[in-house]
Amino acid sequence: MRGHKAAVGLGFTVLAVLWGLPAAGASASGPGAAALSTAGSASRHATAAVPQPKEKPEFDGTFRGLHLNRKIWDTCYPTMQSYHGGCQNWGNHEEAEWYLPSQVKVSKGRVALVAERTRTVGATSTGARKVYECRSGMITSYPGLRFKYGFVQVVAKIPHAEGLWPALWLLPANGQWPPEIDMVESWGVNVLTGSFYHPDTGRRSRSTYSPSLTEGWQTYSLSWTRSKLTYWVGNQVVLTVTKNVPRQRMFFLADLAEYLPAKPGYCSGRMLIKSVKVWTS
């Protein structure tokens, strides 16, 4: 999702780049659009029953009590917690937040990733002190789940607010980016919302659609087989990929970034997640 580029070598040699498609106010035809293969508009998305497995999921990331289960979840990219207790996606120059465990809050059967416009001491990729104007939260299943092929289903409420960049996605467990599977990501209010797949640094597949498709609580699903990726929002198939499908273990992430250029009033909102379930195959 976030135009992840080669980042720091801290165990994970490349942080997800989450392709930074639009800057604030930019259109989907901005820089890099020529490298995209578009998989259709929302008007052509098929409505179909989601083939959710009947058996119990191997991974059931529901959120109970008041704290994350740290045997399952982490609150930073793998191996990146050493800088002031937080982290940042240094592989993507279009992000402006500092992730902290304190911005991940569990209550009432759900987890909230909270973005706040608060000056926060963090670090650069070399460990030097840096002050960020935005603090936010992320979760990753790296401690508890790294898998190859399966069915992923996430019940979440993503925000649509100025300067926010929410995403639900998968990254390689070996830390070597690409590939990257983005179940959904959205920029701001009406800048761009869609599902994406990045098989390498030079090309990607995407399907963009109206933000209204992701308003309120939604179920985001992904079927990943050896030869095919199929993405759903609700019961709508929004993207299908049959070329260069990843054949390596990956892990799940959810984060709430701030995209540049940062402005007063940006970085204010929350992403809510009720459950993350995975059936491996």
Largest sheet features: 9 strands, antiparallel
What distance lies between the first and last C-alpha atoms, to the nearest angstrom? 24 Å
Helix content: under 10%
Got a strand count? Answer: 20
Radius of gyration: 17 Å
- List low-pLDDT spans: 3-16, 23-43
Structural class: mainly beta
Shape: globular
Overall tally of structural domains: 1
* CATH topology-level name: Jelly Rolls
Q: Supply the CATH class.
A: Mainly Beta
Strand content: 35-45%
Mean pLDDT: 86
The CATH architecture can be named as Sandwich
Description:
The protein has a single domain, classed as Sandwich (Jelly Rolls). A hairpin with a 7-residue loop joins strand 12 and strand 13. With 281 residues, the protein is mostly beta strands. The N terminus is likely disordered. The strands form 4 sheets. Strands 2, 3, 5, 6, 11, 16, 17, 18 and 20 form a 9-stranded antiparallel β-sheet that branches. A 7-stranded mixed β-sheet has the order 1-15-14-13-12-19-10, with no helix packed on it. A two-stranded parallel sheet has the order 4-9. The protein contains no helices and 20 strands. The two termini are 24 Å apart.
SSE topology:
Layout: E1 36-38, E2 46-47, E3 59-60, E4 97-99, E5 104-107, E6 110-115, E7 120-123, E8 129-132, E9 134-136, E10 138-140, E11 150-157, E12 164-172, E13 180-187, E14 192-198, E15 204-208, E16 217-224, E17 229-233, E18 236-241, E19 250-258, E20 269-280
Parallel strand pairs: 1-15, 4-9
Antiparallel strand pairs: 2-18, 3-20, 5-6, 6-20, 7-8, 10-19, 11-16, 11-20, 12-13, 12-19, 13-14, 14-15, 16-17, 17-18
